[in-house]
Every structure is written in C-alpha cells, then in structure tokens.
Design brief:
two-stranded parallel ribbon; 2 domains; alpha/beta
Amino acid sequence: MVHYSEPELEEALENYKINFYGQKIKSKHKFRNITFKRITGEDFNDTLTKYEKQNKIDMIAMVTYRRKGFLNLIFDKSLTKKIACHTKIPLLVLH
C-alpha cells in the first residue's frame, strides 16, 4: 500500500498517517502480507508511474473522496481521473 504526498509535507506526520491507517487495516483484515510505503514527488502522476514501473505493480487501487467547495469541483482535476487516463495496468477505484 502506497501513500503519496508532496515533498514539503512534514515527514513525521505523513509517516504517522501511514502507520495509523496501516494498523487499522491489518487489525480488521486477515491480510498479513501488506506493506506500507510513502512516496513523494512534485507530480502525482509521474511519481506513481515511476514507482509502478520500478516495483512491477500489477494493479493500482485508489480511494476517492469528495472535495469541498464549488471552485474545487470546477477547476481541480481528480487524481483518480488523471491516473485512469495514463495507467496501462488495472485500476480499482474505491469510493
């Protein structure tokens, strides 16, 4: 499981999020062979594509959420939509 964040975000806080949600997932599911990693980069699509190729990823699963604000809905393109347009591997979208 990979968590993307911009490089300027505080590393300790981002790692805390990964560990917190990782433990919640592991405690609720029988999957024990799950790893959690933070990746950073200036561009989400480029960073995820590079990670996907370097690690021979078979599938991408993304969680979507509603963005707040009318202007965000108009001007901000969803990261999920960006990946859907560029990836060559299966994409699972969870809402």
